[in-house]
Amino acid sequence: MNTAEFLSIANLISPEKEAIIFEDKRFTYNQLNSRANQLANKLTSWGVGAGDRVGLMQVNCNEVVEAYFACAKVGAIFVPLSFRGRAEEIKHMVNSSESKVVIAGSRYLGLIDDLRSTLNTVEHFVSLEGTGDGWEDYEEALNGQSSDYVDAEVDDDDTTILMFTAGTTGLPKGVMLTFGGVSSYSLSNVTPVDPEQVEKNILTVPLYHVAGMQAVISAIFGMRTLVIQRQFEAESWMELVQNEKVSRAMMVPTMLKMLLEHPNRPNYDLSSLEVLTYGAAAMPKEVIKRAIVELEDTQFINAFGQTEASATITALMPEDHNVKGLSDEEREKKFERLSSIGKPLPGVEIRIVDEDGADVPTGDQGEIIASGPQLMKGYWQQEDATSETIKNGWLFTGDLGYKDDEGYIFLSGRAKDFIKRAGEMISPEEVEQLLMSHASVDEAAIIGIPDETWGERVRAIIVLKQGQETTETDLIEFSRKNLASFKRPESIVFSSEPLPRNPLGKVLKRDLKQMYDQPIED
Fold this sequence. Notes:
The chain is α/β, with parallel strands linked by helices. It has three domains: 4-231, ANL, N-terminal domain (Rossmann fold, 3-Layer(aba) Sandwich); 348-414, Luciferase, Domain 3 (Luciferase, domain 3); 418-515, GMP Synthetase, Chain A, domain 3 (2-Layer Sandwich). The radius of gyration is 24 Å and the shape is globular.
């Protein structure tokens, strides 16, 4: 199914309902559909058709949504470019995708101008905010174009989004997400609201990430109103939720932590927030426990997925977060389950397998693999990488985990981040969660330090809470009391700066290894 039909149908049913609220601009479904049609017709006039690529580099805004649906309407492939990417990465994304058109915000025109002579396939450079030398103005491109219905016929296996995902080494890989894969998530998991009902979703995660794009497509399918924030800022987020009476949000753990700790939070009425979905990085248990208690009118969902799966593949649902009316024992059991990523979504099958691809017993650790209609088509122009990741219809996620006897799945961490000490495998996430339960610890990251005798040894990088103190000896003793001896940190480094993270809150372990790779002395 062409995802452009989601917008066309919403326009037919609720043309005057607000589709997008972005700063001082508000667009109805009719206006959004008309602008997407105008851009689609302009793309057609530029010779952009089925399978051609259109790159876009900008923070969250209404034009990103328009550009995606315009591309879908002509069967073109939308290529969201990370606005945090280095020049070499942007060059790689544009050239690898052979984009015909590049659309960019004013902040990024200079960067692209510096690369222009190397971007051999780009025929049109379009500025979202005014013109520059060699740049066409976005609004002028729309002016005069027909707003008539545009909707190309596509196959479910045709690519709709080429989303580049950064690896730990080398240049980003392009993930081919298909019309069928992207639409299947909404069709299986999203219930459209009543045409007369208003339900608002606040969008803060970046739209070059799969979570952001899936949030957009799902909201349009559900005929909800998107309240778009350029980039997350806690106080303006609270102001938007209060003023627009936002009912749904998606946050990464660092965003939720910043929200809970903001001194002005009591000044805002967040009672309209019915559902808060979190994911994209490991959620510290103490943060979500605090959120459940302090945002008592809000239901929570832990969504787990990855770019290669188009979006969420498992979820820990609201009932798994609800602790109201429970005894202390039942409440504690629920809190223990907050470490889980839940169970597979409809249409998704999950297995935990060993190195030979055989299912492991309940409770045993293995690699999480997934099957279902959401899986990527493959990596763009990388057949070998595709065959290593998708085998016999199963996506090998690279995440390690286990199932409990009730079918809940628990993450152990990324396979590449696991530490192997004297033949014993150590999950960094287990040690990190334990350290973050210490009263003085704000952030914790575990890395492996190469060692000739042991293979690797365990080092913790710790950021203390403001005004708190502790020592290396205290934390190692705390770990010894709560972990198997081979898992406890053997050295601890205290950092005065927050841990380095990517835009979605994942700790950059490779950066930490470069910064703190000195051998551990006995």
